[in-house]
Amino acid sequence: MPVTTDSSKEWLLQQIESSKNSPAYGNYLEIRDFVLRIMDANPHQDASLYWQEELTGFDYFLDASPLLVNKLRHQCYHLTGIRDYEYRNHHREKAQEAFHNKLAALRRFDPEGRLLVGESPELGGFGFQIDDFLINLDTLKFYEVLIGLDRAGLLAPFSRPVGETSERKAILEIGAGWGGFAYQFKTLYPQSPYLIVDLPQTLLFSGTYLKTLFPECRFLLVDEAQPTIDKSMLEEFDFILIPHYVWPHLQMEQLDLAINMISFQEMTSGQVEDYVARLSGWGCPNLYSLNRDVSSHNTELSSVSGIMARYYDLKPVEILDVAYTELKVPVKKESQPDSRSWVKWLRTALSAKQRKKIKAQAQKRQEKERFLYRHLAGSLKAPC
Ligand SMILES: C[S@@+](CC[C@H](N)C(=O)[O-])C[C@H]1O[C@@H](n2cnc3c(N)ncnc32)[C@H](O)[C@@H]1O
Fold it and tell me: Which ligand 1 atom is at minimum distance from the Cα of 290?
């Protein structure tokens, strides 16, 4: 039995009381009411098999205490797999250098540091302190995606000042997890409305997090009674949260960019097709993806890029030669000069058996590529 003195009991009661009255807990309760209502409106489980299991892993968050909400970021490992424990001081010596090197490698694509936003210390935010930034694996992933968007030329419209005649540019993220990318994007482009489509239970994380970190922003919580998002709403609201089951009924008047990271790969083919087809139907000009073609445990999906390519012309965006999950950045090998005559010679000199072997190796490589994370920038196909 734990020994408690009066003073530690008092301390605990004080902590609970002040957390209960914090804006974070108030935001949590408000978003939870919304989430419970939309869960009622869509009682059948239509998440992929993988996500049905994931959701049961964090159902306890529907009954979070004020102290737990105060450390919301510590519960987000359900969504991106990283834990505050790995970033405590006793891991610093061993791990910090690798983070430092990866960040330095990414910063080479962003020498002026225009796109770097560190993790906020709010709500239990964690990471290694590097220069002025709190850095963890999620921070680096989001930074990598911002760099990819920039390299594909997709951030330029968001950087332009919004004049009296020009409208605010809107971005939609499908499957936003705890809202970490939304936090970085909104910090860089405060004028742009940020829309999120996600499973109701996950919106509890992103809604609470974003509402707490951006207390001055206006939030619209969309349900099935209000499936049209018109331009005036994009002017009026800063964040628009949309439960996934509203998607098939949704109408959007304007959307300038859609993104998806580490999420399409975990859905069914039907779900990915539904997202991409509707984006294309609304004329959303760009769709950016950081995904594998299929997660290794997902048996319900054909291929993310295969589905996207039916509606969008896809261009790979080269950043680092390493998955976002890896910290060690390999040194790029100098590529051999491609001598046409050498290639021709090789083709004629090879025996049928050797050619067959090379073909089999290429097929194997292709199969392996299905499981590689790729940045893809999609631009809307012209109508046939
Ligand atoms: C692995 S998490 C990644 C979160 C975030 N994109 C990131 O990279 O940090 C996958 C996300 O996809 C969402 N998701 C799963 N199935 C979905 C569906 N059918 N519609 C919308 N979002 C879905 C999950 O709720 C979660 O937010």
Answer: 8
